[in-house]
Design a protein that fits this description.
Layout (H helix, E strand, L loop, with lengths): L1 H19 L6 E2 L16 H11 L15 H12 L4 H4 L3 E7 H16 L7 E6 L4 H8 L3 E6 L1 E2 L4 E2 L1 H10 L5 E5 L12 H14 L2 E6 L9 H4 L1 H8 L3 E7 L11 E7 L3 H19 L5 H11 L1 H32 L7 H5 L4 E3 L4 H11 L1 E2 L5 E3 L8 H13 L3
Parallel strand pairs: 1-12, 3-4, 3-7, 7-8, 8-9
Antiparallel strand pairs: 2-10, 5-6, 9-10, 11-13
Helix pairs in contact: 2-12, 2-13, 3-12, 5-6, 7-8, 12-13, 13-16, 15-16
Bound molecules: pyridoxal-5'-phosphate.
Length: 404
């Protein structure tokens, strides 16, 4: 609890300090949303187009949506994450409910499992160590106790694959594991395809349940299908699971709260029962999900031209982040010859990077260089741009050498 509190305070503190700091060269690397090369929020051009279409459709009203959401949206959202050729979808084994973005999907999924999962022992969920800070609170809120499984190895600044696999092996049968589908937050460390396969083998052997959280589809590699690979593979192989999906990052619709929960069942009959249970839960929580964001995403997913444009927008965002990784790596290794190995900067994936620096070094960066980041050394790559990258690299170099 003390650690969690520290994390929260540190986060609030660093973002507040950043906005109050008049220093011209200050850099905010604590931000959890995409920024363009001018450090500004970016409304995707495809979203602007979809908004214009909505504005010019006078037949749209402001009635309630069905409890489970806008049907065309939920159908298209399921295909986006599970694949349009998904057998599970064709067999009617997927129940999709529109949620309040990814957070709402996590919450509804957690609530659903708390009520209906065939618990053997205690109500517990295994979370990666570390994970998105909100996971702990979301599960505790519904009476499920979070426990950690090893994920990040500070020695290699990479995946603690053996630790992860051993945790799967040693957990009681039918345990629930929360798994980041791609672009793990906060580490940026994802398993390789070979490692994913071994994880799936162990999940199947032990009868574990996969609680997949997919907040960054497209954002990791720049390609929506590549980033859904693990989810689709686990579904194909018959792992029992659900998937939380967010359109906050990949459509830049942070404040519109558009997302979905997909629960996989073994038969259409079971899926129908899940739908009625989820409807009852959703009714008492939010009555009906909001329309605006779902309408935008629905237009994009169901119009071939808009969909192609969206893919280009996603590639622009992911491409800029990958470019920042490569530039940072180059300046640190080729130019500054910063002590240590920096391969992880280019090997990690998605918005965040664990730099591997010590809490003292990150504190020095905040206090002496006006570079705001979390104490655990996590930086948001989207806070870097053509104008501040060299300043950041120079300060990081000095911090590592103990000269800041
Ligand atoms: C791993 C993970 N899951 C879920 C979310 C939820 O985001 P939202 O509720 O904005 O979709 C986030 C946001 O940062 C995240 O990083």
């Amino acid at each position: 609890m003390a650690d969690r509190l520290k994390q929260v305070v540190n986060h609030i503190f660093s973002s507040n300090m950043s906005s109050a700091d008049p220093f011209e060269k200050k850099v905010n690397l604590g931000v959890g949303a995409y920024r363009d090369d001018n450090d500004k929020p970016w409304v995707l051009p495809v979203v602007r187009k979809a908004e214009q279409i909505l504005l010019n459709t006078p037949s749209l009203d402001h009635e309630y949506l069905p409890i489970t959401g806008l049907p065309e949206f939920t159908t298209a959202a399921a295909k986006l994450i599970l694949g349009s050729d998904s057998n599970a979808i064709m067999e009617g084994r997927v129940t999709t409910v529109q949620t309040i973005s990814g957070t709402g999907a996590n919450h509804l999924g957690a609530l659903f499992l708390e009520r209906f999962y065939p618990w053997v022992g205690k109500k517990e969920i295994y979370l990666s160590d570390p994970t998105w800070a909100n996971h702990q609170a979301i599960f505790k809120n519904v009476g499920i106790t979070p426990i950690n499984y090893p994920y990040y190895d500070p020695k290699t600044i990479g995946l603690d694959f053996n630790g992860f696999l051993n945790a799967l092996k040693n957990a009681p049968n039918k345990s629930i594991f929360l798994i980041h589908a791609c672009a793990h937050n906060p580490t940026g460390v994802d398993p390789s395809k070979e490692q994913w396969n071994a994880i799936a083998d162990m999940m199947l052997e032990k009868g574990h349940y996969g609680f997949f959280d997919c907040a960054y589809q497209g954002f990791a590699s720049g390609n929506l299908d590549n980033d859904a690979w693990a989810v689709r593979e686990f579904v194909k192989r018959g792992v029992n699971m659900l998937v939380c999906q967010s359109f906050a990052k990949n459509a830049g619709l942070y404040g519109e709260r558009v997302g979905a929960l997909h629960v996989l069942s073994s038969s259409k009959e079971a899926a129908d029962r899940v739908k009625s249970q989820l409807s009852v839960l959703q009714r008492s929580e939010i009555s009906n999900p909001p329309t605006y964001g779902a309408r935008i995403v629905n237009l994009i997913l169901n119009d071939a031209e808009l969909f192609e444009e969206w893919k280009r927008d996603i590639a622009t965002m992911a491409g800029r982040i990958i470019d920042m990784r490569q530039q940072l790596y180059k300046v640190l290794t080729d130019e500054l010859k910063t002590p240590g190995n920096w391969d992880h900067i280019v090997n990690q994936i998605g918005m965040f990077s664990f730099t591997g620096i010590t809490p003292q070094q990150s504190q020095a960066l905040v206090e002496k260089a006006h570079i705001y980041m979390t104490a655990n050394g996590r930086i948001s790559m989207t806070g870097l741009n053509g104008k501040n990258l060299r300043y950041f690299a120079g300060c990081l170099d000095k911090a590592v050498r103990g000269e800041l």
